[in-house]
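yo, Small-subunit processome Utp21 domain-containing protein is done. seq:
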Amino acid sequence: MATLKEPETIEDQPRKRIRTFPKPKSTKSTQKSSNEARLFAPFRALGLITNHIPFYLQTRSQKGATEGPRIHILTCLGRSWALWEGGKMGLLFVGPEAEDRISCLIMEGDAVWAASGTHVIKYLRGQEVARATNPIGTFISSIVMFGSQLLALTEDGGRLLIWDVSDEPSLSCTIQFDIGFTAVMVLHPATYLNKVLVASSEGDLQLWNIRTQMCIHKYSSSKLLIASAAAKTPSSPITALVQSPAIDVVGIGFTSGEISVYDVRADERLMRMYMEGGGIKAMSFRNDGHQVLASGSLLGHLALWDLNSGGRLLHIVRGAHDGAISAVEWVPGQPLLITSGGDNSVKQWLFDSPTAAPRLLKFRSGHHAPPHLIRYYGEDGKQLLTASADRSLRYTSVVRDSRSFEMSQGSLVRKAATLSKSLASLKFPPITSIAYSEMRSKDWDDVLTAHADEPFVRSWTVLNKRLGKHTWNYAEGSKRKAPSGSVKCVCVSACGNFGIAGSSTGEIYMWNMQSGIKRKTFKVGQGPQAALDRLDGAKPKSSGRCITGVTTDALNRLVIATTLDGTINFFDFHTTKLDHTMVLPAFTNSIALNRNSGLLAVVCDDMTIRVIDIETKRTVRELSCGSKGRILDIAFSPDSRWIVSSSLDSIIRTFDIPTGRLIDAFRTSSAATSIAFSPTSDFLATAHVDSVGVFLWANRAQFAEVTFRTVTEEDVAEASMPVMQGDVEDDVLEALTALTTEDNPVDVFSTPPQLDGDLVTLTLLPRSRWQTLLNLEVIQQRNKPKEPPKKPEQAPFFLPSLPGVEHRFAIEGGKGEKTERKTQLDKAMAKSRSIFQKKLAELEKKGTCNDDLFNYIKGLSPAAIDIELRSLVTLDHLRQFLHALKRRLQSHQDFEAVQTLQNVFLRMHGDMLIENEELQSELEELLGVQKKESERVLELLASSLGTLGFVRDTT
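structure:
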């Protein structure tokens, strides 16, 4: 009999330091390291649905609802969890990351309980509200909610911990199992008070009373399994334990593939089934009146058993998941079955009749193997094309996960059922190269792919979400004795009309994307002697002319191809003639071309990126990526100013091309196999060797002013990986909150009013302002109404009316008073001076700089300036304004404004200026200054135009 030990009497020493509660909200957000990534900040992860941890299904019935209960699916994402709405499989929100990986998830109302490491954490609306810690220090493998008590099994299977969670979690007792009984799961049988069933990896089953902490009954593996199976596999572990709709009856699944429907009260096996093709991983009883048992195997098969016929096999869905099925659950009261697996997918199966085969109703899935090739599709930066070792090509949306899908490869499900093969075995080999052009995507296929060790090039159409019309075999036209090879790289021309592929035998073929007809062939030939000599003792000469990269320029003038022996070959696009060959000092692996700038980046074996100008065919930059890891992938920024590279040393480096400096470098937890820069420059996407997701990093230069400096290999920052967060206000943009706070304050440069006293400075106002002032009379004449205003209808003879659009009646009383007031107002206005005239007087009186006057003039509208100039009626006003124009010309400021004001002023008051001799001296001085400044401006313009013409002629 097992013994009981209270928590205070446990003598085992903790193997881990016990964390105190409460803990910080997020360890990543609170622990800011000084060497955090300066240019890229973690943003979010894409394509994560679930992992091998079973999901938890919760149904909620609402009063008055006509569409049935609402379904919530809780899935595990590693160290965080996601809650999905089962109706449309939409993501509700994602929980924060825990310190350790989550091993079990359950729901209690609105609360989520997660077992992570030595803790059981309670979340409410995505926020941690409580935590229970294992005092022994061992990890927790599974948890079960039992009323107000929480039951948890330790990872070693030796203890069952019981917490009272009615208020704050407090450990009430611990049950320790006997040696030889390793507990793996706990089940509460329906209607059993204070009793639970505990299954072991040895194939035994025990019934425990958790209130008295006593083992009531033991079920031996010899009774649970049939005698023959028990003799052959005496210790077949129990891997599934579920409650049936019948009281006292449970379903037990074993790794041997056997299923037992067992009566725990009578200690008797009711029926036995055997599922071929892997052990039982999950089971579930249908509960809508039909006696059906669903089971999932380790190989991904889904089986349905008719319990009314003694466990007869109804249907089996082979390859329901690409991997082990982790959980199987029937929706209560509905013919709907939900399954999940380690292939990163959750599927819903609908049964149209009790005996009909299930059909896939809806699903949400992602890659079930880490993607090794990602590329942005389109110019808006909202979608990605991702290829993975799971032999699939997926379209991944950056903005909304529900828009992501897998590109169809044909009727593979039907073929797999006909040939009795797995679905994965019928898919194309893994993709090694992707190219696309969105220019003609609405007319024909727009994506090309090359596959591992295959001579085929396949076209795809993103618009129709499927495989395209054409599959080209480059070896069809070759001679029989020619060595067989495979396609290594593909390219689609910028116009979208031609697809190009380079092979391992050194041949390059071009096809028409619309018709599929082969158009041209390019051959690299034997190559320079320098390249051939380098192959001696390094690589076989037969593979030295392998094409490692092929691309075209933006205008379809050149076809550029690199070979493994380190050469860059430039072909004429139309004549297929080899125009030029460059020999690099190292072997080449891949290339990337920015068509807007004409810069070609070549990845070489010596851990160096060489940037080639395709116009001059010269090496303009050599960027070293350290000496510890091979370069895996590179990407240009859209403005071709940066090159981002990833290498085997798990460092992502960013180089500034104009200066050739390393401006940013950060290390991730695992190597990034592929990277892609968004066409809108806002995100950098990465794919890593140990994750099925795609990770986005925000470009901080898009959101704040970032000062770049040279980064050395010793300054590499450790960056935390992006997480799949759901609460935008709290955690999604948490990495972007400190974009400006950690940067140095920006020294804002303000333009001075004049750079140099010898330079001619113009106003900052638009040219239309001065053009309108010059032609104001013409504009007013053109805008005059064509017809005079019509007289309003007459009022009755005894009510005189006032002129105007609206009917108003004149009142005899007070007419004389209004006339008197208007006359007084006119007299007051005539005696007052405008602001313009006051500033003119102050300028003459003080003799200071006239900036104040001209700043006021530049703030007026053309009509207001015209009125102010017409108000200058006295000789003093005219002399003051002539003096202001002369002073402004001598200051070399507002040249075009002075010319405009002078033109309008002379046209208005020219007659008065000529008639009065006292203004002649002012006019002569203004004329001299005007000639001097005009000649000076014309001389500067002629010099600048001559210099510009010389530069144009020489280039």
